Amino acid sequence: MKTITEVIRLGIATYALCAMxxxxxxxxxxxxxxxxxxxxxQQMNAEDVTGLSIALVKEQxxxxxxxxxxxxxxxxxxxxxxxxxRAGSVxxxxxxxxxxxxxxxxxxxxxxxxxxxxxxxxxxxxHGNLNDITIERVLNHxxxxxxxxxxxxxxxxxxxxxxxxxxxxxxxxxAPVDTIGVYSNVGYSLLGEVIxxxxxIEFNDYMQAKLLGPMGMKSADFNHQLEGEKAALGYxxxxxxxxxxxxxxxxxxxxxxxxxxxxxVKMVNGAGSVNGQQVLSAESIxxxxxxxxxxxxxxxxxxxxxxxxxxxxxxxESALVVGHDGATIAHRSVLLVAPEQQFxxxxxxxxxxxxxxxxxxxxxxxxxxMWARDNRVEFDDVEDLIAVPSPKAASVKQNFAGHFVTPxxxxxxxxxxxxxxxxxxxxxxxxxxxxxGVYRFTKELLGLxxxxxxxxxxxxxxxxxxxxxNVVVAAYQGYEFVIAQKVAQADIPVNWMxxxxxxxxxxxxxxxxxxxxxxxxxxxxxFLLAEILVNDGDNQQVVLAPIxxxxxxxAGLGRALGDNIHMKRAxxxxxxxxxGLVFEQxxxx
Length: 589
Known about the structure:
Layout: H1 4-15, H2 32-47, E1 51-58, E2 61-72, E3 77-78, E4 85-86, H3 91-104, H4 114-117, H5 135-139, H6 161-167, H7 185-199, H8 203-212, E5 221-222, E6 235-236, E7 239-240, H9 249-252, E8 254-256, H10 258-269, E9 273-274, E10 277-278, H11 282-288, E11 309-311, E12 321-327, E13 332-338, E14 343-349, H12 356-375, H13 382-385, E15 402-406, E16 409-415, E17 419-423, E18 428-433, E19 439-442, E20 444-445, E21 449-450, E22 460-466, E23 469-476, E24 479-487, H14 494-499, E25 501-505, E26 516-524, E27 527-534, E28 540-546, E29 551-554, E30 564-570, E31 573-578, E32 581-585
Helix pairs in contact: 2-12, 3-7, 3-8
């Protein structure tokens, strides 16, 4: 099971890139490339990154681009600026741009319901009217659509999006619209279908003709897989792995080099103009970069425009930074832009098993280095100029006692003499007030000797009631996000007691994504739990909230939560259905 530190990282990653501390250095116009190269090598060596490419962009010029490590380690093929990678979810920025082109052409409007823009789309909902799912809400991940439809997502021969579309009629929305950001690859895959239907051109052909070509993204394409002479092989923690074809091309299937993605930075810097080509109006670019979820209380510091995420506390003077990151089986990417300063960076790597902070650290270091260079200040001084607000003691009485749904499953917290004792599935931490009056985690050996918790010591917690929900809000380096939701024990329908036991996965699912063995349904502390059993032993737990005798939802707020679980009897066997995957009860139960 994941550790509490990973909970914090998951909470941050649920929304957007978060400001990270980076090593200190100094810079001048003559040595910033050398300095950045040294930092990149340091991070790659520390995290065993196989290959990486980077590009720095100022206004309409690529200042510097280079490769590090290997595109093919066995053949000793070095990574270059022209090396091709899978862009992952950075692809969504291009899909959102294409949607805005159709809006400018009056083919659709941001308020157009998805049911109207994409005939044939339907999904079950327990959360209001299906017509409330609009193009804008899909773009900003507030449509309440599931994060993924796992069946056929990654495969040698992936399911078509049109086939997925037809199967969504058996699925459910996961949240009411505009209540909390629920990141959705499903939503962006459907936007790809909208582009094809409304333009009359197949999605891949449209992207090539209307965006990639005009923008000068010469080696980029949208495809199920990465191919070609310049393609980087995929690795996980330095070991070669297969980068399986992906169904959701519009959500994460762009192949590109950092030179290609540098054109996206240019587009933002040029208010829609790239290399003399006006691919989008300045008004549309401004709209894409404008916060769309400012009234969504549960989002806290997760701010998003139309596809573009806001990144806080990265540059001095509260300078606006927007961007997106991407992850596939074997590739990582980050694209960041400071529109007002007219610069940005692109980082891409071909190792999906690395600590994602290494890639983010390189991207953020490069952004701060460029700011220092533009403003003619020593890099040592940059972090001192970034105003990160300190957490303040809560104005209302705090109560952390009870059971909470978190990204690692069910967590129990009990009142203790000095605060709260929090049980995290094998690990116990103390949650106590510090000298400033805010709650933080501590740990002691034998109840006497303090043990360092590293970056977790920087995180503060506050219990709040928001939108009639009791939640715990975490604050990390000035960034606030919901990390847990308090849940109460409830009666479990009798049928579900018969469903308890182990279930074997009978649907095909690639072990490169997650080596799933099955699912175990059990009751603990009066809660219905599902434990995802994986062959490497790193099982994952979720809390289930029964809806009726045969349906339950995964409890909690945010990414991959709220999904529906359906129990079914088929040919004298009990089956568990989740996201198109089928699990059958082990007869030995």
